[in-house]
Structure formats: C-alpha cells, structure tokens
Amino acid sequence: MKVGITFNLKRSETELDEFDRPVTIEAIKRALEARGHKVKLYEATSPLLFYSLTIDRPQFVFNIAEGKYGAYREAFVPALLDELRIPYTGSSVLSLAISMDKVMTKEVLLYHGIPTPKFKVLKVIDPIEIGDLNYPVIVKPIFEGSSIGITSKSICENDIELKEAAEKAFRKFKRPIMVEEFIGGMEVTVGVMGNFPPQVLPPMEIDFSTLSKRELKASPYIQTYKFKTDYSDKANYYLPARLPVEVLQKITEIVKNAFIALRNRDVARFDLRVDKNYNPYILEVNPLPGLDPEHSDLPRIYKLMGKTYGDLINDILQVAVERYRLETKISYNHEE
Ligand SMILES: Nc1ncnc2c1ncn2[C@@H]1O[C@H](COP(=O)(O)OP(=O)(O)OP(=O)(O)O)[C@@H](O)[C@H]1O
Ligand SMILES: [Mg+2]
C-alpha cells in the first residue's frame, strides 16, 4: 500500500515541544517498509502539506502529527485528511480536540461514571483557593502534554504553595489552569489497540523507586517534564502492574469505557493513578501516544508483551485499515 506518514519534526533535542525525533520517523518508516508498504514522509508544518497530499494521494496516512499552534493543534492534520478524503490512523478531529482539553476530557469521563480525580478550573481573575477539594493538590496546564508545566513545585500541600504554583502557571501558559486532587500511590499507564471491540493491553506500572534521591527531588514519584526528558529510562516498568487481579480487571474495564466514551479510534494510551485503597483514577488520555522506539511507553508495553516495535506500528495500521473496511459496510458511530 502507498502509505504517507504525517508528523511534526523535533528540530533540536533541547526544543521544548512534543514533536518527534528523526529516529522515530525513520523507525516507523522502516517498520512499514519491512511489511512491503511504499512510504512517503510529510512534515506537517510545511506550507506545501495540502498540495503534496492532494497531488500524491497516499492510500492511507499514518498520522502522528501533534500540530504546532492553538489549543486543538492535534486535530489540524486529521481535519485536512478528512477534507481530502484520505483515510488515516487514529482518532477523529473531535476526539483529538476533546483530549487536548483535560477538563473537557474529565467532564466526558464523569458523565459516563468513569473515575477521575476531583478538580477545579481557575481563571486568572478567580481567587486562588481549592474550594471543596482536599490537599494535597496538583496544578496543571489544561492544554499541554508531555508533562510540560509539571514540576515538583506543581504539588501543593497548602494555600501558600498553591498560590505560588498557580501564579507561575498563569504567567507561563496565559490560559486557565486546573487544580486536581493529588492521588498518591501507583502510576499506571494503559495502552488500547483496535476497535471492534477495543483491546485493552496489560496495565504497565511505572515504579519510580529506582531513581536517585536527587532525581526524586525533581520528580517526586510523578512524571514531571524532567522525568520524561531525562529520567524515564531509570524507572522500573512492570507489566502487568503489581496489583491484585481484580484491580487489573477494574482498570481494564474503566479504560475500555473511557476509550469508547472519548470516541477514540485505533490506538490510545491512558495515564492513571491507583490510590492506596486500590481505587484507580484516569488522569488523561493520549490518542497520539508517543512512539519513540527508545523512550515511549507504548513501545515499552509492546516490548514487555514480547512483541516488536514493527508489530506495534503495523498493528496500528492494520486496525485502522480494518476500521475503514468495516465502515463502508456499517455506520457504527454518529460521526459518519
Ligand atoms: N491528580 C494527580 N495525582 C497524582 N499524580 C498526578 C496527578 N495529575 C498528574 N500527576 C502526575 O503528573 C504526570 C503528568 O500528568 P498528566 O498525565 O495529566 O500530564 P501530561 O503533561 O498530559 O502528560 P502526557 O505526556 O501523558 O500527555 C502524571 O503522569 C502523574 O505522574
Ligand atoms: Mg500524561
């Protein structure tokens, strides 16, 4: 098949963004070529993107473009592909836009009775207070990924710390922010693959206890930006997570319901915390999960399942192709 890859390229290792490293694009290209596909690359920031896709008309696009500007940037390339009627892997414009907004994501989850930590939105003119939340809380930007804006200072134990963290976040992001009850306990990330029905992969535990004292100070048992960029290879990963079977089953059930509720397609990764009483909470969804062959969690999950990076990439393409094939026969959701 003639497959295009749409992506945003990281220009330098120090750039603070969510874009992909050249090695990731190359690895995806090689994985697809190894299964006989003819692959062409499309850098999504190019002003010629619309033109090249119109002229080339790939049969399918493997989309990992995060988009550059605006709160809903991940939806840009899928909107273009919809307009050109070129099929692509992954979630729709609506689903990607919802998941860019952590508050909207949580509102959808709550509507469906799916557990997510209690939260409050603060606008710059609001008094900085926690209302009916309980300390500790964590202050987060609403529209960022890759733990951008999350540091050890984001966790607040009292009003003074909250004021400091909130004011800093307002200055940095110039948008409303979110204050969320902090869930101590275990960090778990869960992959989902496919559609009819979605297959929830075994939950993966991220164990921070192998980090040094200094590293834990910068990243106190959470995934800060520093952790994602510098420490992620130093953590321990357990698949499945070291939890009782009933808890793993409960996680699988809520993640599957969340995938459906959030209109996700083909692939996604959910970040969760599990408190000391074994209650799981969904923090957020990543419908364009990182595919860095060395540092991303979904490739890690596949490796721990005994599968290869090539399997992962080709599974994503295959479930998307299958979905399009079935969509021509049945209209299974209201977006069609
Ligand atoms: N309510 C919470 N309780 C405990 N830890 C939290 C909470 N919210 C966030 N964290 C910690 O901060 C990390 C980043 O938070 P979150 O996943 O919401 O942000 P992100 O920047 O969107 O990350 P991603 O790269 O997955 O998109 C989490 O993985 C977790 O370690
Ligand atoms: Mg996350």
Automatic annotation (TrEMBL):
The protein's required cofactors: Mg(2+); Mn(2+)
Main location: cytoplasm
Entry-linked InterPro entries: ATP-grasp (IPR011761), ATP_grasp_subdomain_1 (IPR013815), D-Ala_lig_Van_CS (IPR000291), Dala_Dala_lig_C (IPR011095), PreATP-grasp_dom_sf (IPR016185)
Keyword Cell wall biogenesis/degradation carried by entry: yes
One GO CC annotation: cytoplasm
GO biological process: cell wall organization; peptidoglycan biosynthetic process; regulation of cell shape
Compartment(s): Cytoplasm
Reaction equations catalysed: 2 D-alanine + ATP = D-alanyl-D-alanine + ADP + phosphate + H(+)
Domain of life: Bacteria
Keywords: ATP-binding, Cell shape, Cell wall biogenesis/degradation, Cytoplasm, Ligase, Nucleotide-binding, Peptidoglycan synthesis
Name of this chain's protein: D-alanine--D-alanine ligase
Organism: Caldisericum exile (strain DSM 21853 / NBRC 104410 / AZM16c01)
